[in-house]
Amino acid sequence: TLPQPNCAPRARSLQQTPNKRPMKLETKPNPWSCVGSAFAMVLDISAADFFGLVGHDGSEIAFPMLPDPMARRGLHIQECINACLKLSYTVTPVELFPVIRPTSTDGHEPCQNLVVLFGADEAANWYRFEQTVQGSAGVLEGIGRRCLHAVAYDRGTIFDPDGDQYVYSHPACKSRGFHPRRAWRVDLLHSRSEEHTSELQSHSFTPYA
Question: Which tens digit of pLDDT belongs to each residue from 183-192?
Answer without folding.
Answer: 999 999 875 5
